[in-house]
Amino acid sequence: MDQPTMTRLDEADDxxxxxxxxxxxxxxxxxxxxxxxxxxDRDHAPATGDGVRDPEAxxxxxxxxxxxxxxxxxxxxxxxxxxxATLTAHDARDGVLQAxxxxxxxxxxxxxxxxxxxxxxxxxxxxxxxxxxxxxxGEYPVIPYEAHYTTGSDVGESQRRIAAVVGLMETFGxxxxxxxxxxxxxxxxxxELMQVIAAQRAVAIHEGDDAAVDRLADAEATxxxxxxxxxxxxxxxxxxxxxxxxxxxxxxxYRAAAALAAELVRRDNAVRNGDDGGETDGDAAAETAxxxxxxx
Length: 296
Hints:
Elements: H1 55-75, H2 81-88, H3 90-103, H4 106-118, H5 121-132, H6 146-150, H7 155-171, H8 187-207, H9 210-228, H10 232-243, H11 249-272, H12 281-294
Helix pairs in contact: 1-3, 1-8, 1-11, 3-4, 4-11, 5-11, 8-9, 9-11, 10-11, 10-12
């Protein structure tokens, strides 16, 4: 199976699947603004599929989710100067913090942005290779692929899981780029997949397309339940365990990125289950510890 490459944060445009910290939902709608621009849509409020009755608030909510998924997904791409510049640009920082404020994740987002701002590209490269690289003849310090956490050593199930991710990417128009030569179940790919679906959901609410809202809500549930929920919190646990008290700037950046990603998944899972607490990162990591210890 060919290795895909994800669209980089700084390469997105309004005709491709949106990706990155400043992405807009497909079609150019300013979904993060919280305001409609085509008349009094309150009289014809679309379904939101998430229990939020005000369509303006629902649209802004899902745009905020898309922004954070795009930011943390991009952070797990291999670091270079354009990627770091995108994550640390003033406008991008403001957008991420506004989105995080809406979702109750401002503290985690500030820690994430500050850590990347404090790290030079060389720091990030060293940390990325040290955490997620495969040493010759060695083992990954932290394995960035979902199948390791959710299927263990079952090769057939791993292949089916990866194929499911590929199918979702194709369905929702995730455009492979040229610089991300990783397997399809890489953490960056799956987080950006969720970003695209959340952005499309914001657009569907804006357009009053009830059928699309329901379809996208179901797709998000599938990605959460079958992929992210058992993967991202456990990955964050492994990053935290591996980095520990290491004060190196690059390693702190990836620890903060993993923590934000895990909190975002935890938050979405809690909302989906209709409560405010949901499963903690520790609980999710404990659930997958046995599978993780078995390897891929």
